[in-house]
Amino acid sequence: MAEDEHSWSPLGFAEAQAVFKGPTQNARALTEGWAAAHLFCPACGADRLRQLPNNSPVGDFVCDACAEEFELKAKGGKLGPKILDGAYGAMMRRLSERNNPSLFAMSYDPAASAVTDLIVVPRHFFTPGIIEKKNPTHPKGRSNPWIGCHILIGQVPLSGRIPLITRGAHVAKGEVLDRWRSTLFLRDASLNARGWLLAVMRAVEAVGRPEFTLDDVYAHETTLAALYPGNNNVRPKIRQQLQVLRDRGWLEFNGRGRYRRT
């Protein structure tokens, strides 16, 4: 099968009938069933992902070909800038150990039983800065408060929000794989270094055009300084990150302070 000939259905919920009493359980069973039946691995291109047992500590799916692990979060209606996740402490531990799964974020139309939008956020785009700590709650039967978290996907650079389905239309498999591979260099960076790289990537994307100047990125100096208040040399740091992104092929340097997104 050619790379872009992967066959999958946006209306596959019927293949995973759920019989739970609660709507939340039913929605989870249906969306996970669809993913198990239709998703390919965006990391290596394998045709199927294996569903992990319920309540697995790492994620929901694994690729047996490349061992990449994935978590699935699904929502009826449009995806917002943040996604509800599990325990804050567990998430932060996963980030520090760098074994966090990549994230599939799905929106679906409950009435039509159809996936409307689906993106994947590779694990190398996860940093503490996109994890929002929720206020403690006191669930019945627990002696200690429980603290959950949100994933702020709206703060992930567009390069890290790779679409698989957009408004009901599939994105070519080859394009998904190319976009995944184009940012793998981030895995070589430490968690702190990755935070700066991602912040500068967001600033570059915020310029809104493929060709830009150093001054265009300097225009976001205040925002970057607020993210890293202990750094008093923001402009040199910006230049350093642009050089790394150039060396890694994410952008080109055309001389005299001019750059171009590749």
Radius of gyration: 20 Å
**Strand order, largest beta sheet:** 1-2-3-5-6-9-10
Low-confidence parts, pLDDT < 50 over ≥5 residues? 1-8
Order of helices and strands: HEEEEHEEEEEEHHEHHHEE
**Mean pLDDT over all positions:** 88
Report the strand count: 13
- Name the helicity range: 25-40%
SS content category: alpha+beta
What percentage of amino acids are in beta strands?
Answer: 15-25%
Give the biggest beta sheet: 7 strands, mixed
Q: What would you call the shape?
A: globular
Number of helices: 7
Distance between the termini: 29 Å
Quick structural gist:
With 262 residues, this protein is an alpha+beta fold. The chain is 30% helix and 22% strand. The chain has a 7-stranded mixed sheet. Strands 4-8-7 form a 3-stranded antiparallel sheet. Strands 11-13-12 form a 3-stranded antiparallel sheet.
Describe this structure in words.
Helices cover 30% and strands 22% of the residues. It contains seven helices and 13 strands. The protein has helices spanning 23-38, 88-97, 173-181, 191-207, 214-218, 221-227, 234-247, and strands at residues 50-51, 61-62, 69-76, 83-87, 102-109, 114-121, 131-133, 148-151, 162-166, 169-170, 211-213, 251-253, 258-261. A seven-stranded mixed β-sheet has the order 1-2-3-5-6-9-10. The longest helix has 17 residues, at 191-207. The chain is globular, with a radius of gyration of 20 Å. It starts with 22 loop residues before the first helix and ends with a strand. Residues 1-8 have low confidence and may be disordered.
